[in-house]
Each structure stands twice: as structure tokens, then as C-alpha cells.
Amino acid sequence: GKGAVGTVNISTTSQATDSPGVTAKASMISIRFEDNGPGISEENIGNIFEPFFTTKEPGKGTGLGLSVSFMIVERFGGEITVESQPGQGTTLVIHLPLTPVEASTER
């Protein structure tokens, strides 16, 4: 909310992985975003990557940020994971391959 004070931590790691959806072991970089905000409710967490989903009042947001981010990361052969506990903050991790993958032609 307005005037809220919090902390966001950003860190990176690289590793070999055999994540779901990755056909062979690939070197990945993980970019981790953590905050100590209010968290995301259990009823909303399954919808956060849906286009136009927002918990803001009308006119205060389009709900496109995370859905567009999700599509971009997937097109680069990566994935986004999220963990959140109401009242304890949220952790969002973007996993991307260090070597290029063939871009999907699906639109």
C-alpha cells in the first residue's frame, strides 16, 4: 500500500539442471527476487500469471506484467516459479538456460 516500506533482495546463481520441460541437462542461471511484503493469498497465487489478473481496483493496473514476463521467459526456454506465504513475503525465481534454445514459433 501507499507508504509501505519493505525489502527486495535479488540474487543470481548458475547450475546444471534437469528441470521439468528441459529435455537434457542444461546450464541455467536463476534470478531470485524476494520481498518481505504482505505475500500473495492462496486463492490468488494460481492466477498471477493469467493475462489481466489483478487485485487492484479498476484503473490502477492492467494485470499484464507477470503474464508477459511468463511468456518471454518461456520463449527463451526458461520458467518462473513463485512461493508465497501471506504475511511473510514472496519469492519469485526466473530460471533461464545459459545457452540459447531455438525460439518457439508458436504465437
Report what the structure shows.
With 107 residues, the chain is of the alpha+beta class. The chain has 2 helices and 4 strands. It has helices at 42-45, 65-75; strands at residues 8-17, 26-35, 79-85, 89-97. It starts with 7 loop residues before the first strand and ends in a 10-residue tail after the last strand. The model has no long low-confidence stretch (mean pLDDT 81).
Summarize the SSE layout with pairings:
Blueprint: E1 8-17, E2 26-35, H1 42-45, H2 65-75, E3 79-85, E4 89-97
Antiparallel strand pairs: 1-2, 2-4, 3-4
Structural class of the secondary elements?
A: alpha+beta
**Numbering strands along the chain, what is their spatial order in the largest sheet?**
1-2-4-3
| Separation, N- and C-terminal Cα atoms | 36 Å
Total of helices: 2
Number of strands: 4
Overall 3D form: globular
Q: How much of the residues is beta strand, in percent?
A: 25-35%
Chain-averaged pLDDT: 81
Detail the poorly predicted runs. none
Helix and strand pattern? EEHHEE
Q: Over the alpha carbons, how many angstroms does the gyration radius reach?
A: 15 Å
**Sheet with most strands:** 4 strands, antiparallel
Concise synopsis of the structure shown:
It contains 2 helices and 4 strands; from the N terminus they run E-E-H-H-E-E. It has 107 residues and is an alpha+beta fold.
Key features?
107 residues; 2 helices; 4 strands; 34% strand; globular
